[in-house]
Design brief:
The complex is a heterodimer of chains A (about 280) and B (about 325). Chain A is mostly helical and about 280 residues long. Chain A contains 11 helices and no strands. Helix content of chain A is about 75%, strand content about 0%. At the A-B interface, helix 1, helix 5, helix 6, helix 9 and helix 10 of A face helix 1, helix 6, helix 7, helix 8 and helix 9 of B. Chain A: Keywords: Cell membrane, Membrane, Transmembrane, Transmembrane helix, Transport.
Chain lengths: ~280, ~325
């Protein structure tokens, strides 16, 4: 009997107990990369475009941290400068998805009835097409460029945001303070702007934080497939794609920029889960 | 019950029809001059106007949009998506050609991903060592964070170029399937494992587990007999997401490993702006997605008596 009592008293499951140092490290990584994007020249002395053809395919060394590529360009410099392209596109994509998704979700949840049903059926359709495929189709129609990638990734994520926003609006609309506001004679628009929107946004913001990691992956994946910036420009997905042709002999040329990308995504995921937990409390 | 089935079937049909419409608008209406999309951009200026007019006539671009739409929808209903611009073959035949190769890869990856996900959830639930649990629980979010093209290249580098165990590309039997299979299974396993870890944890704290403890069951018996049977089911609810991951993953995986398949064909079709082929692929994907969700909606009540009871009671 005592054995059972002991087992039950113990917290059987601690879902999240990752040590804080990892969270701090994640913040350092993300802030560093934001620094790369804002002031690339502070972090590297090399140019991302000019290379020394004599020093092509150098191995990683103190001089060239990530080595050099086929044209002797410093790959660390290209990764640093590439962060600007990739991060700007991601930010734009998340803003589009967040803005339009929140508006669509608010319209659906706040109107209710037939409007709600109609909007959500359309959202279902966008969820039925895998987002990478949808983004590929959109980018093929718009033309290849980093901005269009951002637009495509943003559009393909609207449905997910709309869904979360609507669910949140539906719970808020039934709260007592909303009914009280109506009772006090506040108009529908006033209730929506003053009470529903501010109280519904938090979970959508948590999703936006999570979407940044996913967005970087989507932008880089489209760049890898060749739908983004034209070659001389540095972009993370494109860097991996360029190095891929020589992966058998010079593996670091694609693996190191790729690892940098993966580490950034892992760090943003770690940060966004910490947001979500605080939000839940 | 019949109402429930009719509702779900109606929704599936609507999703497919709407996906067709969205694709039509995106690919045939929005582009300023859809005829241009049918030619190689570099040759665009050298094409005489008569040829353009001829092509527009062939593809029906000179007809009113609504008429084009009705025409395409009518043909799509009998499985006719027109001819691929690049190869000139019927779209359906071109898709069916490469489909088996992707189906084998995707289904094998799905099996492997499910096994990995269950293994992660089982270890996380069964272990009493916090560090091991933390490590295992961190794996799924790691799996979804690493881009598929990077893991593909890493796996290729280690097992093909360094160790030489497997061929680096191609489509020759089981040997060439292993590396793409692992590459594709990792990102697919991530979300499934996240869901399973959570539902295992919930079920492990459920009342019937306390009862089993009280009756003197061991930890292992509880996990296998009580938790495992109840916690596996929710994985079905993300079948649609899993399917999306398999499609997106196979586009990248097939590109990295230069494998023939639907994913690589999608990429080529988009690169060459093969509009009819792209439209056919998108609709096919939407049909599959709708069928998967319909199947899950229909078999879930069969598998879960609680849901069945609420359905027969008319509360759905």
């Amino acid at each position: 009997m005592t054995a059972i009592a002991l087992t039950l008293k113990k917290p059987i499951f601690r879902i999240e107990k990752a040590p804080q140092p990892i969270l701090i490290l994640s913040w350092i990584i993300v802030l560093t990369v934001i620094g790369w994007a804002l002031f690339p020249s502070l972090f590297t002395d090399y140019s991302p475009y000019a290379g020394d053809p004599a020093a092509s395919f150098a191995s990683p060394s103190l001089e060239h941290w990530f080595g050099t590529d086929r044209l002797g360009r410093d790959l660390f410099a290209r990764t640093v400068y590439g962060s600007r392209t990739t991060l700007t596109a991601t930010l734009l994509a998340v803003l589009i998805a967040f803005g339009l998704g929140a508006v669509v979700g608010l319209a659906a949840g706040f109107s209710g009835g037939i409007v709600d049903t109609a909007i959500m059926r359309v959202v279902d359709v966008f969820l039925a097409i895998p987002s990478l495929l949808l983004a590929m189709v959109v980018v093929s129609v718009l033309g290849y460029s980093t901005n269009n990638i951002a637009l495509a990734v943003g559009i393909s994520a609207i449905a997910a945001f709309a869904r979360v926003m609507r669910a949140q609006v539906l719970t808020v609309v039934n709260q007592d303070y909303v009914k009280a506001a109506y009772g006090l004679g506040v108009g529908r628009l006033g209730v929506m702007l003053r009470h529903v929107v501010p109280n519904s946004l938090s979970s959508v913001i948590a999703l936006a934080a999570l979407e940044i990691g996913t967005g970087v992956l989507a932008v880089a994946s489209l760049g890898f497939l060749g739908y983004g910036a034209p070659p001389p420009q540095p972009e993370w997905g494109l860097l991996v794609a360029e190095g891929r042709d020589y992966v058998a002999v010079h593996p670091w040329a694609s693996i190191l920029p790729g690892l940098a990308l993966a580490i950034v995504v892992i760090a943003t995921h770690r940060i966004s889960t910490s947001f979500r937990k605080e939000h839940r409390r | 019950m019949i109402r429930y089935v009719a509702l779900k079937v109606g929704r599936a049909v609507f999703v497919v029809w709407a996906a067709f419409t969205v694709t039509f608008v995106l690919l045939f209406v929005l582009p300023a001059n859809p005829v241009d999309l049918l030619f190689d951009p570099t040759e665009l200026n050298s094409i005489p106007p008569e040829v353009r007019a001829q092509v527009a006539e062939n593809y029906g671009f000179n007809k009113p949009v609504l008429l084009q739409y009705a025409d395409r929808l009518g043909h799509a209903l009998i499985g006719d998506f027109g001819n691929s611009v690049q190869s000139g073959r019927p779209v359906i035949a071109a898709i069916l050609d490469v489909l088996p190769s992707t189906l084998i890869l995707a289904s094998a990856a799905l099996v492997l991903a499910t096994l990995i996900a269950f293994a992660i959830a089982l270890v996380a639930t069964a272990t009493r060592r916090p560090w091991l649990r933390n490590l295992v629980e961190a794996l799924p979010s790691g799996a979804v964070s690493v881009p598929v093209f990077l893991s593909g290249i890493l796996i290729l580098q280690v097992f093909s170029f360094q160790l030489g165990w497997f061929p680096s590309f191609g489509d020759n039997g089981v040997q060439s399937l292993i590396l793409p299979l692992i590459t594709l299974a990792v990102p697919v396993a991530g979300p499934i494992a996240q869901l399973l870890v959570r539902s295992f944890a919930t079920e492990f704290g459920a009342g019937y587990v306390t009862t089993s403890w009280a009756k003197g069951a061991t930890r292992g018996r509880i996990i296998v007999h009580d938790v495992f049977r109840n916690a596996g089911l929710p994985a079905l609810t993300i079948a649609g997401v899993t399917f999306g991951n398999l499609i997106a993953g196979s586009v990248i995986t097939e590109t990295v490993f230069a494998r023939r398949g639907l994913g690589r064909m999608t990429q080529t079709a988009i690169n060459t702006l093969d509009v009819p082929l792209v439209a056919g692929i998108v609709v096919l994907v939407a049909v599959t997605f709708a069928l998967i969700n319909l199947t899950v909606d229909l078999i879930y009540p069969v598998l879960d008596p609680r849901l069945r009871a609420s359905l027969t009671a008319g509360v759905s």
